[in-house]
Amino acid sequence: MTSEYAGTLEAKQPFDRQGESDEPPPPSGRSVASTVIAVLLVFYTLYFAAPLLVPIAAAVLLSMLLAPPVQLLERVRVPRILVPGVTVR
Questions:
Q1: pTM for this one?
Q2: Which of 44, 78, 79, 87 could make an S-S bridge to 73, C-beta 3.0–4.6 Å?
């Protein structure tokens, strides 16, 4: 390491850091308002999409719940057309 290189490193480092903190500045009012509006928009979208999303979620949950019994009945050679009726009953 040469003395020229060491001298440039020392010159770039501040000697006195009084009053400085490593914390970021607080968020501005505009960014807080934008965040609140975005969150409200997501909630309103989910509220109005609920009639579409709830049946889809129920179908996915039921398919995962009924998959093991359906596989078992198919291994026992129950015809595929009868398996859902046997499983749900």
A1: 0.52
A2: 78
